[in-house]
Hints:
Residues 1-130 form the VIT domain. This protein is an alpha+beta fold.
Amino acid sequence: xxxxxxxxxxxxxxxxxxxxxxxxxxxxxxxxxxxxxxxxxxxxxxxxxxxxxxxxxxxxxxxxxxxxxxxxxxxxxxxxxxxxxxxxxxxxxxxxxxxxxxxxxxxxxxxxxxxxxxxxxxxxxxxxxxxxxxxxxxxxxxxxxxxxxxxxxxxxxxxxxxxxxxxxxxxxxxxxxxxxxxxxxxxxxxxxxxxxxxxxxxxxxxxxxxxxxxxxxxxxxxxxxxxxxxxxxxxxxxxxxxxxxxxxxxxxxxxxxxxxxxxxxxxxxxxxxxxxxxxxxxxxxxxxxxxxxxxxxxxxxxxxxxxxxxxxxxxxxxxxxxxxxxxxxxxxxxxxxxxxxxxxxxxxxxxxxxxxxxxxxxxxxxxxxxxxxxxxxxxxxxxxxxxxxxxxxxxxxxxxxxxxxxxxxxxxxxxxxxxxxxxxxxxxxxxxxxxxxxxxxxxxxxxxxxxxxxxxxxxxxxxxxxxxxxxxxxxxxxxxxxxxxxxxxxxxxxxxxxxxxxxxxxxxxxxxxxxxxxxxxxxxxxxxxxxxxxxxxxxxxxxxxxxxxxxxxxxxxxxxxxxxxxxxxxxxxxxxxxxxxxxxxxxxxxxxxxxxxxxxxxxxxxxxxxxxxxxxxxxxxxxxxxxxxxxxxxxxxxxxxxxxxxxxxxxxxxxxxxxxxxxxxxxxxxxxxxxxxxxxxxxxxxxxxxxxxxxxxxxxxxxxxxxxxxxxxxxxxxxxxxxxxxxxxxxxxxxxxxxxxxxxxxxxxxxxxxxxxxxxxxxxxxxxxxxxx
Length: 773
């Protein structure tokens, strides 16, 4: 006889997130993002409400508040040691502690949980700040939309202001995966957690002065240096690849796939070699680097194809690479070449472990590498969580390079290739930016080992009173010689006081009164912490940590040396919280009670000479059903709007109003960009030319005053002289761009571009945009 048991499924009811808003204001690359979430406990019992936000590792939290029953509880930034004391006290009193954990792919998670009584509304507001880095010719802003459940009232507002002008801007399809090869398109099944994606915007700026752009405010300055159009300097590059037993399987397959592509991208003026290592070291071409001819590249690919995983002698591998690059330690053979002073020496070092054979002491390995590498730059890639990333980072910092994590995932090969693309095209080396006549002080780093195509060098500092123009001297090495340039750069006001709205933006976005001031602190703290990593002297480390801590506390930044404490606001809410930004450990800390008025940040007023793009998205709760953007935009001159989902961007210019209709704003397109195809083909059309790029490299430029055509990645672009351009993207997709020209234009007429879908049968029925408005 069997007894029958009845099981009842109990579904735990969560309290409701009623509002979720993300607001971001970007002023001259400096982004201030505010995430606000409101929770209502509709139940008859006390329930826990969790608030989570994913942050970039480069971001500093600058404010966090909890609002309940009209009271605002503002978090405080504390020294980590002080936070530990608060935690120990709270534990003895039985208080609940919050948790800040890290997450994959250089993303850190801010998390706080509070107990919410029945019928109570609680709002969380988190603000964080970061400088957007320029990589591969663009800045990228990524905003997480993860409320944790379907939300009725969810929105996103973005304002981007650049004083020198925005050259292009595009919003990518929602990134539902953090894989770089995210390909999700079309209709999605509604997830239980509601919207769970990243909204990514890419853009670049105009640069009118080759010496860069300097902006000042309140006695502080920032100098952005990113010259364009320089010839690429050839390189001597050594690829050092870990083939120890831990690389067996997927890791070695992905490494081989990435190397095959990377070798194809070498220029013929480059010289290269390959080294593999496990407990032994093997060099592909003994004692020399070889020119990247078609035959040598083919031979190298065959060598890579035969690589198989076989501990890990990091020291011997680095010394072998150094011998290939250091002319004093070897003599070149007749069939090879010693490194040239006109080529940039670099090592790409990939490992997934730590030193286990040969020399294993980190300090000795670091000392040996520094002595042997000389002026070579070492770029370290730590593959997976088991790699000794701290040591690799120190190796890179001490040898003119940087280190990155490569995460074990389906897109690891894309990560490897993406990093190489960043350093594949050096334009200048040994760059020194000097500020003459004793006009500045407290400047951040101004000596840089390399400047790569598509990147940007940034220097911040303080100005002495009365400075009107800043005298700047640049010294560097290019592909042929040492260059020295002096120039006086005008000092542009970064922000001004004014009463105008944010140039047509949907609403005033949260910002900061003086981003230049805070940017100086941001850079200084990061450099102090890097310097701390770069020294083994205990006294110097303590001094650097103290300086970084004092600056962090002054500017209310949560950094690796400070913690964010928000207090247990009794009796309405029961919790205490600490957030840290440590990437190597997780901390749990509680705090003491303190109620303050909420600190507010006002949006910086933008100079009338600035260029601004605004994006406001509403009804975002629909986005997890289908990628259907609902744009609420105001037509602003010099804004770039997403037009259709392929992607087509249109750049607007302001036109004179017609007589009698002066109150009506008129705008036309003066530039259209189309991005499509597996090869990342970008077609940029103006009234003068049609430029075709693939993978960030210019393929061809067709003038519009003559007939011409080009085919790339299955696309065909045909220019009809002074009339039009036909773009065929495949079966059933054809665009027509007309050049609207006037021989005798009237006062209100302006030459412009017209965009038309000549054949749209190949487009999805979900395709939407601003066309037809």
